[in-house]
Amino acid sequence: MARFTANASFTHRTPPLTAVVLVQLGTPDEPAAAPVRRYLRQFLSDPRVVEIPRPVWWPILNGIVLNTRPRKSAAKYRTVWSASGSPLLVHTQRQSVLLRGLLGDRGLDLTVAHAMRYGEPSLPRVLRGLREKNLARLLVLPLYPQYAASTTASAFDAIAAELRGWRNLPELRLVRSFHREPGYIQALAAQVRRHWQRNGRGEKLVMSFHGIPRRSLDRGDPYHCECHATGRLLAAELGLGSDAWIVTFQSRFGRARWLEPYTEPTVVALARGGIRKLDVVCPGFVSDCLETLEEISMEVRAAFLGAGGEQFNYIECLNESAEWIAALADLVERHAAGWPVARLPDDLQSRREAALVEREALAKARGAAT
Asked: What phi and psi, each to the nearest 5 degrees, are found at residue 110?
């Protein structure tokens, strides 16, 4: 068996492909215990996600977590699942289509695909599909605005693991983070302003980011700092004073200390302190998902109202907003700079195709199979 995989469909007439792959975290295939268990096994087996030594973690994962959590998580997924499927996957698919359209409108000839780090469509499957189309240049855009080893670096690990088995590698570029990107900040601000125009403005804006273990920060992970940088930039874009907003962290898993302050205890304290109308936005999530629609809009809402709050306004993620798609296109244009991605006029395209035919004939004359 060959150690390295070749592009089975390659011919010298095949034009080189430049592609952008949007990478999201992932989602189960269905909101049921068995698919959720498969998803959690893959997710929680990643050493970037859980850094506990494997001999300690495996009995906990397989003996406890995967026997208790899937059914509970599946019930939560059912509360946000739509007829179209997982909200995270649906939004990511739409973003991919809209980005491809906008790049085309800007005169750029780029293939846009989307992949999940865990679950489907998997990164290996998407990359192999692009390889069969003669992938020559690959821009990886993880949809995590703030860098973390457990997200962005994990995506890179998966890409490197797949490419390790390829014979012919593409040129590779990776968008590390975009937490300070002006278009991203402006898109967030536009989303908040639209919500305020429709629903009025709360007394305080909570910016809730996904948490990570505190030890990750202590060991040099920049995620905490990048979340706060995003928070400051968004507050400045909205013209908010320092007492009008706060950064918090949600989705704590396990008993270890995570980044603080935690979102739910914070909103409870705000309600008990006299805040009656609260706005919550999740800048670290570019698509609505379980953590925003169920955890924030349902669980945290209930905690705030139960503590005496009167109005809890969850502000939707960027999803398919025009400002966000434009920000994505700007990111792609900048990171693809120098690559031949401009769409050719019809006459030049015809000349290019003729040149490829000539190249194929010349290659065969020199002994190539195709």
From this structure: -130, 135
Report the C-alpha gap between 66 and 253 in whole angstroms.
14
Tell me the CA distances in angstroms from 256 to 73, 211, 287, one per residue in order.
20, 12, 27
Q: What is the DSSP string of 254-286?
A: SSS-BSSSBHHHHHHHHHHTT--EEEEE-TT-S
Domain ranges of the chain: 17-178+324-346, 182-315
Q: What are phi and psi of 281, to 5 degrees?
A: -125, 150
* pLDDT tens per residue across span 128-183: 999 999 999 999 999 999 999 999 999 999 999 999 999 999 999 999 999 999 99
Asked if residue 350 has pLDDT above 60, the reply is no
Give tens-digit pLDDT for 107-136: 999 999 999 999 999 999 999 999 999 999
Multiple choice CATH, 17-178+324-346, 3.20.20.70, 3.40.30.10, 3.40.47.10, 3.40.50.1400: 3.40.50.1400
Q: Taking the domain 182-315, which CATH number applies?
A: 3.40.50.1400
Neighbours of 54 (CB within 10 A): 11
